[in-house]
Amino acid sequence: MARVTTVVCVTVIATESLSKRFPRVTALDRLSVDIGPGVTGLVGANGAGKSTLIKILLGLSPATEGRAEVLGLDVAAPSSGRAIRERVGYMPEHDCLPPDVSATEFVVHMARMSGLPPAAARERTADTLRHVGLYEERYRPIGGYSTGMKQRVKLAQALVHDPELVFLDEPTNGLDPVGRDDMLGLIRRIHTDFGISVLVTSHLLGELERTCDHVVVIDGGKLLRSSSTTDFTRTTTTLAIEVTDSETHPDGTRAVREALHARGLDTRNEGAGLPGAGHILLLTAEGEETYDLVRDVVADLGLGLVRMEQRRHHISEVFTDDGHSSDEQRKEAVGHGG
Ligand SMILES: Nc1ncnc2c1ncn2[C@@H]1O[C@H](COP(=O)(O)OP(=O)(O)OP(=O)(O)O)[C@@H](O)[C@H]1O
Ligand SMILES: [Mg+2]
What we know:
The chain is α/β, with parallel strands linked by helices. The chain folds into 2 domains: 13-233, P-loop containing nucleotide triphosphate hydrolases (Rossmann fold), CATH 3.40.50; 238-310, Alpha-Beta Plaits (2-Layer Sandwich), CATH 3.30.70. It is 35% helix and 23% strand. The radius of gyration is 24 Å and the shape is elongated. It binds adenosine-5'-triphosphate and magnesium ion.
């Protein structure tokens, strides 16, 4: 059927005061957000409400209050559920694959469930498995697949019916750093190669930042922030600097701190209050100028620059007013390879 798309739809997903309350927990709390085409990251700590939002958007779980629209369809309207699932692909968070069948059999089955005729289902399955890099292995039973391969099968079944939009719930879960990078690359290409819009969840901001055009951060079911990735990076880039001491400046760190302050750049000590803290200064970089300014200030003081590095962004950064994460949280982010 020819799609009548003369009107350009700029909102792919819209929610208005959307809430979901379980007897003991409020999973979503009056969430209002508009999401446009492209790749959007939905970021939040465990239990933030990411999966709950996706299930409501798919029409699989009713909201307690508020409204939500997906591709212009009201998710609560009785006729919408089927229409949404025809036009939207879904990669669930948890393992849901039958071990005894091959990737080809499973993905063909899912394509048939989405309404594709047998020949088209087989053809699309082959194309999709090739896209996710499982073509060679497609006749082996899924039970013998690695975690990374299983994630790819889950991704393939979400794409096989050529949807306009896909929801990917934690697609990098359980993957090693290389597997994560591969998966993030695949996700980016879903949009660039096929024009499919993507909503992808993660608990690591740094991971999604590279892949997404737009990032939405939620915490405790509430909207914390929604902005384009470039805005996000500009305002949350943390620079860590460490300098030597000298005879003139026995406390080099302090000298740099004061000199930067005099030039209007405020710094903070990493891990302030902790034993042994104070040698690394953190500051929010506004752009290239900040790097140049730090370099000049350190050189003018006659000190050595031991390090100047951009810190990884972690979801916790947006939870604190000054945008810096604690040591422990940073280690965790690095540990996740995000
Ligand atoms: N069916 C349910 N019954 C009761 N509480 C639920 C149910 N589903 C989710 N919750 C609760 O709602 C909150 C949000 O859960 P949700 O699964 O949406 O979080 P999430 O952001 O996807 O987390 P994760 O990163 O761990 O996947 C949690 O506190 C969770 O315990
Ligand atoms: Mg989840």
